From TrEMBL:
<feature type="domain" description="Fatty acid desaturase">
    <location>
        <begin position="107"/>
        <end position="331"/>
    </location>
</feature>
<keyword id="KW-0503">Monooxygenase</keyword>
<keyword id="KW-1003">Cell membrane</keyword>
<keyword id="KW-0408">Iron</keyword>
<keyword id="KW-0812">Transmembrane</keyword>
<protein>
    <submittedName>
        <fullName>Alkane 1-monooxygenase</fullName>
    </submittedName>
</protein>
<keyword id="KW-0997">Cell inner membrane</keyword>
<feature type="transmembrane region" description="Helical">
    <location>
        <begin position="105"/>
        <end position="123"/>
    </location>
</feature>
<dbReference type="InterPro" id="IPR005804">
    <property type="entry name" value="FA_desaturase_dom"/>
</dbReference>
<keyword id="KW-0479">Metal-binding</keyword>
<keyword id="KW-0472">Membrane</keyword>
<dbReference type="GO" id="GO:0006629">
    <property type="term" value="P:lipid metabolic process"/>
</dbReference>
<feature type="transmembrane region" description="Helical">
    <location>
        <begin position="73"/>
        <end position="93"/>
    </location>
</feature>
<keyword id="KW-1133">Transmembrane helix</keyword>
<comment type="similarity">
    <text>Belongs to the fatty acid desaturase type 1 family. AlkB subfamily.</text>
</comment>
<dbReference type="GO" id="GO:0046872">
    <property type="term" value="F:metal ion binding"/>
</dbReference>
<dbReference type="InterPro" id="IPR033885">
    <property type="entry name" value="AlkB/XylM"/>
</dbReference>
Length: 368
């Protein structure tokens, strides 16, 4: 009976499975159905957030891992499902000839929802675990969107330097998403490479040592590209690249939201204060946390990076800043920088007054 209860409790976090049949409908039927996947992940989830409200209850963080089986299962089975969605869509499109170019682009945007909004979020959960098999699943998921360096950048740079100028994916105050996106695409690969180079140097190894994960990253990404070409030829390769771009775009949209305008205090001597709950934006909305496996409990993730997603804690507004809506809705807002600034800049200024009332000058040099 307990297993049944555990399954029922975990079932809402399986919301992502709804994207698989929607992908099949879109690729085979075309027309307006190519919009079903983003409508499901963004519009429906936001409506459910409004209807279902918030979940501010905290699970017992000492819960035994054996009791989390049904929660973990969705992250473990997603890789073959994502492969089916990506390569199955490419196979059908390149053989049926039934979709226009515009429909193909729209469909790949939807596939990018599956591989980015879901796949990369699951990879993020898996890469933080000590289990070697889960870390490999993370690498395989990231290879399907050609963003393998994200693992290094996230683990070695972001978690260490979040809220400082060293972290590229901490969005600066007043920085629009479109400027942020292209900046991150330029800076993060080099930043990840340098982090691995420094790690190897500390171990007395050269950068070309076999233990450098960039060899694995490159091999897995080449395999993903080769499979796309084998399945669909040059058109298939182009479609694969398109979904990868859309997936990365959605990842960085989430990164933009998570820490926008939040900075850590620089201490005497140049070091920064420890990361605190108030250095991440959170959202306690039910449906979007189901879809994003509690990613919106982001402050606790930075406090305990290896904590399984079902056990992440939420905080009060006295301890951590809260967004007015879940990440999917805020992502739409971020795409329109003037509206984003109108909604978020006053919140950042209020955050500054609450946590750093002694800092008067918040210009670029003083933020750090």
């Amino acid at each position: 009976m307990r297993n049944i209860a555990d399954f029922r409790n975990a079932l809402p976090f399986w919301l992502s499975l709804g994207l698989v049949p929607l992908a099949m409908i879109g690729v085979t039927q075309g027309g307006w159905t190519v919009a079903l996947m983003p409508a499901y992940a963004w519009t429906l989830t936001t409506l459910l957030d409004l209807l279902l409200g918030r979940n501010e209850e905290n699970p017992d963080p000492q819960t035994d891992e054996d009791d989390l089986f049904w929660y973990r299962a969705i992250t473990l089975i997603w890789l073959p499902l994502q492969g089916l969605v990506i390569y199955g869509s490419i196979w059908w499109i390149t053989r049926s000839g039934g979709l226009s170019v515009l429909e193909q682009v729209a469909l790949m945007f939807g596939v990018g929802v599956a591989s980015g909004t879901i796949g990369i979020v699951y990879a993020h959960e898996l890469m933080h675990q000590s289990n070697r098999g889960e870390r490999w699943l993370a690498d395989l998921l990231l290879a399907t969107v050609l963003y393998s360096h994200f693992r290094t950048e996230h683990l070695l740079v972001h978690h260490r330097h979040v809220g400082t100028p060293r972290d590229a994916v901490t969005a600066r105050y007043n920085e629009g998403f479109h400027r942020f996106f292209w900046r991150v695409l330029r800076e993060c690969p080099a930043s990840a490479w340098m982090a691995e180079k420094e790690k190897l140097a500390r171990a007395g190894r050269p950068v070309w040592h076999p233990s450098n994960p960039f060899w694995r990253y490159g091999g897995l990404q080449l395999a993903a590209l080769a499979l796309a070409w084998l399945v669909g030829g040059w058109v298939g390769l182009a479609l694969f690249l398109l979904q990868a771009f859309f997936a990365v775009w959605q990842l960085e949209l989430t990164n933009y939201i998570e820490h926008y305008g939040l900075t850590r205090r620089q201490l005497p001597g140049g070091k920064y204060e420890p990361v605190r709950p108030h250095h991440s934006w959170n959202a306690p909305h039910k449906a979007s946390n189901w879809l994003l496996i509690n990613l919106q409990r982001h402050s606790d993730h930075h406090y305990k990076p290896d904590r399984r997603f079902p056990l992440l804690q939420t905080y009060s507004t006295d301890d951590a800043p809260m967004l007015p809506m879940g990440y999917p809705a805020m992502g739409v807002l971020a795409m329109i920088p003037p509206l984003w600034r109108r909604r978020m800049n006053p919140r950042v200024r209020a955050w500054r007054r609450q946590y750093y009332p002694d800092i008067i000058d918040w210009r670029a040099g003083a933020e750090a």
